[in-house]
Amino acid sequence: xxxxxxxxxxxxxxxxxxxxxxxxxxxxxxxxxxxxxxxxxxxxxxxxxxxxxxxxxxxxxxxxxxxxxxxxxxxxxxxxxxxxxxxxxxxxxxxxxxxxxxxxxxxxxxxxxxxxxxxxxxxxxxxxxxxxxxxxxxxxxxxxxxxxxxxxxxxxxxxxxxxxxxxxxxxxxxxxxxxxxxxxxxxxxxxxxxxxxxxxxxxxxxxxxxxxxxxxxxxxxxxxxxxxxxxxxxxxxxxxxxxxxxxxxxxxxxxxxxxxxxxxxxxxxxxxxxxxxxxxxxxxxxxxxxxxxxxxxxxxxxxxxxxxxxxxxxxxxxxxxxxxx
Length: 325
Hints:
Blueprint: E1 3-7, H1 12-23, E2 27-32, H2 37-49, E3 55-59, H3 67-71, E4 76-79, H4 94-111, E5 119-125, H5 149-165, E6 171-176, E7 179-180, H6 189-197, E8 203-206, E9 212-214, E10 216-217, H7 218-230, E11 238-241, E12 246-248, H8 249-260, E13 266-269, H9 284-290, H10 298-309
Parallel strand pairs: 1-2, 1-4, 2-3, 4-5, 5-6, 6-11, 7-10, 8-13
Antiparallel strand pairs: 9-12
Helix pairs in contact: 1-2, 1-7, 4-5, 6-8, 8-10
């Protein structure tokens, strides 16, 4: 048994990771601001799931904590807290991304200099690549070419990981590719598709729908992250975590519509800056260093998300997504 600190542990990926760590017998310390009802419910679910004494929830901003003291109480860290969103990172929005993705990450890494940690796993993003890789899978050693301020913030986080690794901090970074699944944030693509089916705003179809994403189910992301905690990776290592198979936006819309029994209402809109044509992860490093491969097919992952978050699903039956009253 070890103690693992999970920042952002009440969030989309964090909640599934904390559940997995608790099931594996680890003591988990969650740090999260818990700003809304969704995260509040998640904390309650985690507390109900955990055995006595195995879960501690600290409701706070990382910037307000005595991080050196906190890190001395745990064996490892998974840093998921941060500001998501490509489109929100433009203009004045970059201030928040700079603070939450860069400054707070540096704050954490600085505090780790004197902490006896086994490892720190930092969440990065496929947005660091921009359009790098062309028409094939992208490897971790290509030159980074982010095309949004959000991507720049995550590339900077990775540079901080490398700089602190040189000072002995056992930090590594995982580049997550388009994560979907249960508890997905309502601003993310699949959640917005279902909201459109429920009578909400039509899904904004940017461009012609041929742009593709390496869609990665949250269970696969959790498995890769759990393995990274135990893998004894060289500090500064960066690893792709994806499905290894890009899916077009049109294909995703079709899959959600078929599961729900009717097409997703869409509204064509113009392409937006910072939105790459394709993301596609080369997974050879993840397989070699983590012994990890994704296992969740898109239709199975979508069925899981829809059944957990939106309605009851019977195997082999279309989903019935009720309209909002």
